[in-house]
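Good morning,

Both structures are done.
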Amino acid sequence: MSGSLPNVMNSMTQPINEASQPHHCAGETRSDLRQRLLRLRQSTPQVQRDEWDKKIAEQVLLWCKANTPTTLGLFAPIRSEPDLWQIYPHLHALGMRLSLPVVRDKRLQSAQPLEFLQWQPGEKMTRDAYNIPVPQDQRTCQPDVFLIPCVGFNAKAYRLGYGGGYYDRTLAAAPNAIALGVAYQLNFCEFCEEHYDRPMTQILTEQGRFLAQ
């Protein structure tokens, strides 16, 4: 697979700027915006997020069935991120090789991209340097498609993360990979990308799949 936009779209695909009005953040630092978006996400009732998670999961399944990636980089949700564990067994059943990211040593974050370990549902898990679940088996692999959680995203399909830069370095090391940002629509916002930021190929939310403006 290449990093170009997939040819197969469904009727829910639309430009990001037509999806909803973004949060304005005039005079707000990235750190302040990040904290505000996290509070907004975490204050959303669990029952609402559960419903949104189902819709995002449907978008992921549709995309994967249409584009049949060979190796898919997943994520273990933290801090009220969209929870897609429900569909990981279905992705495995479709014949994709699945993997999960691991941070070996957070003291090395200024230099290290994420490492991805092969995983399939039912295998034993352990914890990484951030106490996030990771495969106990240490078989590494290189995904050709990444599912990447977003704290926020803008109309150009740039992602706002937690500030560590892990995914930016990971994508810089894999320039031909496809990056599918995963977010709730309420985290659509305005911010200026920086030189090291990497745009997402698409953003998947509960309202559909959105392309850059």
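Second structure follows.
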Amino acid sequence: MRIDIITVSPELIKSPFEYSIIKRAIDKKLVEVYFHDLREYAINDYGKIDDYQFGGGAGMVLMVEPIDKCISKLKQEREYDEIIYMTPDAPTLNQQTANTLSLIKNIIILCGHYKGVDQRVRDLFITKEISIGDFVLSGGELGAAVLCDTIIRLIPGVLGDETSALTDSFQDNLLSPPVYTRPSEYKGLKVPDILLSGNFPKIEEWRNEKALEHTKKIRPDLLED
């Protein structure tokens, strides 16, 4: 998989890709991630990429021309399965979306900034819009990092145990059950006996029951789906 990220602040987003699971995925060449500074496609020598919005109002808007030049250059080099715009006024990212995106080959992610992008960017280029929640960030960079993490960890070979991702919260519309490790007792709290029994069918049954209980308590809306 190849992911191209278009951003006003490349230094802000690079750090999450330099550590842990994502870095190992890049080192193993399971994914390629490239950062494109939108200012390199500015409309003048002063690095202009934004302007006031027509009709008045507070906040600057990213202009269509720099984004057009960047996306067009990338599309001349290869085909892209999705061109994603990170913006709060979009459908919220969920595990099903991450699963689908993890199966495709080439993705462009455009990070919003300021008041957003000229609507014509969305009309001309964007194939999917994603939000990471009902709140507003200073830019789409942190959202893009979250999206990439959810996608990359699902690529076969990235996790040491590929079945791990299959038991994550939301994979089956349930939250994960409680998990324990050593010691078996700590400050009077004991690990449930069933987990120490070695009876794996019963353990799986217990986990399913606890996952259902946890989901009913915390996210009953998931069960409605």
